[in-house]
C-alpha cells in the first residue's frame, strides 16, 4: 500500500481515505473549503447531523486506471476533521498500486512525476513535457478543386496525401462541376469510419474582375491601357470590367492593382464609361483577373445575387462550410446565418478577411462568425503589403482567443503551380503559419490548375508536420484564469494537462463536437480522436487542429462504447497494445446517464 501524494501550498491540509462505496473522505481543519488542490471546488452544505458536510462540485473528475483491478476516482464527499498540519499541506491517497505518483502544484500548474509506474508519465512539469512521438499532422490542409484535380482518382489521391477540406471556388466552374466534386468527396467519406474530407463552398463575393480575353494581353511599363464598363470588349488596349459603377468608384491618381497586385496601373483620366490608365508594373493580363483600387473597396453589396444562388446550391447539397468573401461588417454574417436558420441548414460560416474595410470591424466580424480565413492576396492588394504579416498574426491570435478555427491562405506554394519544388521562402511561410497556431493552411491555384497538385499537398504536409514537433503545447492559448467560470473550458484544459503529462492520445465522445473543439483549442501534444454518431459533426471536425473525427454509433452502455472505440483504434493502427489513452466523457453527451458528469479516464489498451 503505497501513497499517491498531492501537494498544494495552502493554509490547511486535507487527508483522503477510501470508503467501501468507492468515494473518498477528505478531512480538513476548517469549514471554509473553496478549492481542493488544483482540480476541484467544493461547496458547503448542511446534513441532518450536527456537523457540516461538503459535496464536490467537480471542475474535473478523473479516473486513472493504474491497473486492471484498481482505480483512483477523484470524486468525494467532504467532511470536517480535526487533522491539522503546520507544514506544506498534502493530500495522501492510498491505493493498491506498485508505485506512487506524486503531483505537486507550482505557479498554478500541476506537475507529475513517477518512477517505475505502469502509467508512463513525464518527469517534466505540465506544459514542458516533450511532444508526443506519434507522427500525425495536426494542422489541416484545405485544397481547392479545379481542372487539375476534379477527377475521382485525383480527389482520392489528394485525400490520401493529406487533404482535409475540399474547397469549391465559386468564382470558377459551374454548379454541375461543383456537384460532381461534392459527390466524389462523399463517395470517399462513405468508405471510411476514421477518414473524412469536409466541403467548403467559397463565394465569389463582390469582386471587380476584368472580362474574358481570347489570349493573354502583354502589359508593359509606361503603356496606355483602358478599362471600360461596356460588356464584351477585348482588344490589345481595352478590356471590359464586370462592375457598372467602376468609373464612379475610381479617381484620377488612384493605383489600380490587377490579379492581387501582380500588375499595377495609375488612373490618368476617365469618361462616362472608360478609365484611362498608365501601366506601372507590367505583366500578362488573363481572363477574369481581380481588380482592386489600393486603399479602397468597391461600393458593392457583400453578398451578390450570384452568391445567393451559390449559397442556395450549398444548402441543397449540404456543404459543411461557407467561406464568405469580402466581409466588411458583422451584418453580412448575421444576414447569412438568418438565411441558413430559416432553411434549417447546419452550415458554418467562415469569414474571409481580405478587405481594408473589414479591419476596423474585425472583432465584431470574428465574433459573429464560426471561423476566419486570412485571404492575404486581396488583403495585400488593398493594404500595404508590409502590414499583411502583422494582420495574419493578429487574426490568428484573435481566433484562438475566441476558440474559432482560422485558415491561412493565398500564395503558400505559388511556385509549385509550375515547378515541382517550392521556394525556401514558401516553406518558411508555411512554417510561420503553423507555429503561429493556424488550424489550417490552404492551397489555391497549386491544386486547382497547377501542374503538381499532389506534390504540393505532400510538401505542405511534410513542412507542417516537421514544424509542429517544435511548437509547445498550449503556447498560443489564453490563460486558464480567463475561462475559470466556464466548466467546459476548465475541463478541456485539465484533460489536455493530463494527456500532456502522461503522453497519451485523447479519445473524446461527442454529439455536437463542442468538447472536441474545446480540446483542440488547448492544443494538446497528442491527437484528439473525436468519436461522434453524427455524420455532419464528423465532417465539420475535419477542419479543427489536431482532431481526427471518427463515426461510430453510441450505446447506452458507456463501457461498451469505450470498448468498441478502443477496438476500432487498435484495428486501424491508431493505438497499440499496452498503450495508455485518455478517455474524455461529458455529462452533456447523450450516451451517458443524465446524472453523469465530466470526468477523465486513463486506460491501457488490451485486446
Please outline the helices and strands.
Layout: E1 2-7, E2 15-18, E3 24-27, E4 35-36, E5 40-46, E6 52-58, E7 62-65, E8 71-73, E9 76-78, E10 90-95, E11 102-106, E12 109-113, E13 140-144, H1 152-161, E14 165-169, H2 175-189, E15 198-202, E16 208-209, E17 217-219, E18 224-228, E19 238-240, H3 246-249, E20 255-258, E21 263-270, E22 274-281, E23 283-285, E24 290-293, H4 305-316, E25 321-324, H5 330-342, E26 348-353, H6 362-368, E27 371-375, H7 376-382, H8 388-402, E28 406-409, H9 424-436, E29 440-443, H10 445-448, H11 453-468, H12 487-502, E30 506-509, H13 514-521, E31 528-532, H14 535-540, E32 547-551, H15 558-571, E33 580-585, E34 599-604
Parallel strand pairs: 1-11, 3-9, 7-34, 13-14, 13-29, 14-15, 15-25, 18-19, 25-26, 26-27, 27-28, 28-29, 30-31, 30-33, 31-32
Antiparallel strand pairs: 1-10, 2-3, 4-5, 5-6, 6-9, 7-8, 11-12, 16-24, 17-23, 18-22, 20-21, 20-24, 21-22, 33-34
Helix pairs in contact: 1-2, 1-11, 5-6, 6-8, 9-11
Amino acid at each position: 500500500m503505497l501513497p499517491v501524494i498531492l501537494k498544494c501550498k495552502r493554509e490547511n491540509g486535507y487527508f483522503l481515505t477510501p470508503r467501501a462505496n468507492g468515494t473518498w473522505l477528505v478531512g480538513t481543519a476548517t469549514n471554509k473549503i473553496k478549492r481542493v488542490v488544483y482540480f476541484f471546488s467544493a461547496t458547503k452544505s448542511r446534513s441532518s447531523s450536527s456537523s457540516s458536510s461538503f459535496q464536490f462540485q467537480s471542475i474535473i473528475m478523473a479516473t486513472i486506471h493504474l491497473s486492471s483491478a484498481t482505480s483512483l476516482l477523484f470524486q468525494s464527499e467532504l467532511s470536517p476533521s480535526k487533522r491539522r498540519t503546520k507544514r506544506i499541506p498534502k493530500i495522501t491517497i492510498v491505493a493498491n498500486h506498485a508505485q506512487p505518483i506524486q503531483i505537486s502544484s507550482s505557479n498554478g500548474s500541476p506537475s507529475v512525476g513517477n518512477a517505475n509506474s505502469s502509467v508512463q508519465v513525464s518527469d517534466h512539469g505540465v506544459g514542458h513535457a516533450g511532444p508526443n512521438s506519434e507522427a500525425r499532422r495536426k494542422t489541416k490542409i484545405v485544397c481547392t478543386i479545379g481542372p487539375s484535380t476534379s477527377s475521382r482518382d485525383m480527389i482520392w489521391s489528394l485525400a490520401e496525401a493529406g487533404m482535409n477540406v475540399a474547397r469549391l471556388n465559386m468564382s470558377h466552374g459551374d454548379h454541375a462541376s461543383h456537384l460532381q466534386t461534392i459527390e466524389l468527396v462523399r463517395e470517399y467519406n462513405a468508405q471510411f469510419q476514421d477518414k473524412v474530407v469536409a466541403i467548403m463552398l467559397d463565394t465569389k463575393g463582390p469582386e471587380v474582375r476584368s472580362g474574358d480575353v481570347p489570349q493573354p494581353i502583354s502589359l508593359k511599363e509606361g503603356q496606355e491601357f483602358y478599362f471600360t464598363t461596356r460588356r464584351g470588349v477585348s482588344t490589345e488596349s481595352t478590356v471590359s470590367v464586370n462592375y457598372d459603377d467602376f468609373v464612379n468608384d475610381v479617381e484620377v491618381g488612384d493605383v489600380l492593382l490587377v490579379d492581387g497586385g501582380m500588375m499595377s496601373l495609375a488612373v490618368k483620366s476617365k469618361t462616362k464609361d472608360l478609365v484611362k490608365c498608365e501601366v506601372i508594373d507590367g505583366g500578362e493580363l488573363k481572363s477574369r483577373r481581380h481588380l482592386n483600387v489600393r486603399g479602397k473597396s468597391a461600393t458593392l453589396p457583400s453578398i451578390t445575387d450570384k452568391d445567393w444562388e451559390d449559397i442556395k446550391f450549398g444548402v441543397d447539397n449540404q456543404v459543411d462550410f461557407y467561406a464568405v468573401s469580402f466581409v466588411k461588417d458583422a451584418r453580412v454574417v448575421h444576414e447569412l446565418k438568418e438565411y441558413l436558420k430559416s432553411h434549417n441548414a447546419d452550415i458554418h460560416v467562415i469569414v474571409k478577411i481580405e478587405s481594408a474595410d473589414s479591419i476596423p470591424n474585425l472583432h465584431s466580424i470574428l465574433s459573429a462568425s464560426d471561423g476566419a480565413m486570412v485571404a492575404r492576396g486581396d488583403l495585400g492588394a488593398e493594404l500595404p503589403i508590409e502590414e499583411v504579416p502583422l494582420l495574419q498574426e493578429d487574426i490568428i491570435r484573435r481566433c484562438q482567443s475566441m476558440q474559432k478555427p482560422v485558415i491561412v491562405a493565398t500564395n503558400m506554394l505559388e511556385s509549385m503551380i509550375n515547378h515541382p519544388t517550392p521556394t525556401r521562402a514558401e516553406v518558411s511561410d508555411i512554417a510561420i503559419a503553423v507555429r503561429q497556431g493556424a488550424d489550417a493552411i490552404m492551397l489555391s491555384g497549386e491544386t486547382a490548375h497547377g501542374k503538381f497538385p499532389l506534390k504540393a499537398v505532400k510538401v505542405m504536409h511534410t513542412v507542417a508536420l516537421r514544424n509542429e514537433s517544435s511548437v509547445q503545447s498550449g503556447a498560443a492559448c489564453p490563460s486558464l484564469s480567463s475561462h475559470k467560470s466556464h466548466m467546459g473550458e476548465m475541463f478541456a484544459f485539465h484533460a489536455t494537462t493530463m494527456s500532456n503529462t502522461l503522453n497519451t492520445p485523447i479519445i473524446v465522445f461527442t454529439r455536437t463536437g463542442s468538447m472536441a473543439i474545446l480540446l483542440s483549442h488547448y492544443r494538446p501534444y497528442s491527437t484528439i480522436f473525436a468519436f461522434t454518431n453524427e455524420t455532419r459533426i464528423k465532417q465539420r471536425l475535419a477542419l479543427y487542429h489536431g482532431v481526427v473525427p471518427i463515426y461510430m454509433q453510441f450505446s447506452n452502455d458507456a463501457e461498451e462504447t469505450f470498448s468498441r472505440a478502443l477496438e476500432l483504434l487498435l484495428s486501424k493502427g491508431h493505438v497499440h497494445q499496452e498503450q495508455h489513452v485518455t478517455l474524455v466523457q461529458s455529462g452533456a453527451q447523450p450516451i451517458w446517464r443524465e446524472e453523469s458528469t465530466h470526468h477523465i479516464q486513463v486506460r491501457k489498451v488490451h485486446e
